[in-house]
Amino acid sequence: MLYEIRNYHYDPDKFDAYRQWAIDEAVPFLKANLDVVGFWVDSGDLPEVTGKTPMDLPLGSANITWILRWDDMDARNEGHKRVFQGEGWKEVWSRHPDANGYLQMEAKFAKAL
């Protein structure tokens, strides 16, 4: 199995509208069309950043994280094409409160041990 971990830094000034859109539109659609492990939004509590050389990042910690499960990278690439280029997602996306509110997006890939 391959896990796609998606971290977003969404504009804090527009975060409440994004959160409501995610609850009402995005998450139900994504869960119906993909193997969503989980979808998390920032709780408002301060993050804990520790370690020998913690980094002070200009944007801080991501305020949105969601994880998708795939068989492999080929399945991931095909799934993205099928879902995110489809009419259903285009309809959901058309109601996005501000598609330009993403300050940074990261997708990383991991395999379970």
Question: TL;DR?
Answer:
The chain has helices spanning 15-33, 73-84, 87-93; strands at residues 2-10, 36-41, 64-70, 102-110.
Description of the structure:
The structure is a single chain. This protein is α+β, with helices and mostly antiparallel strands and 113 residues long. It has helices at residues 15-33, 73-84, 87-93; strands at 2-10, 36-41, 64-70, 102-110. The chain has one domain: Alpha-Beta Plaits (2-Layer Sandwich), CATH 3.30.70. The radius of gyration is 15 Å and the shape is globular.
CATH topology-level name: Alpha-Beta Plaits
Q: What is the 3D shape?
A: globular
Strand content: 25-35%
What is the oligomer described by this structure? single chain
Structure class: alpha+beta
The tally of domains stands at 1
Query: End-to-end distance, in Å?
Result: 10 Å
Helix-residue proportion: 25-40%
Rg from alpha-carbon coordinates: 15 Å
The CATH architecture: 2-Layer Sandwich
The overall pLDDT average reads: 95
Number of strands: 4
* Major sheet summary line: 4 strands, antiparallel
Note the main attributes of this structure.
four-stranded antiparallel beta sheet, 113 residues, 3 helices, Alpha-Beta Plaits, 34% helix, single chain, alpha+beta
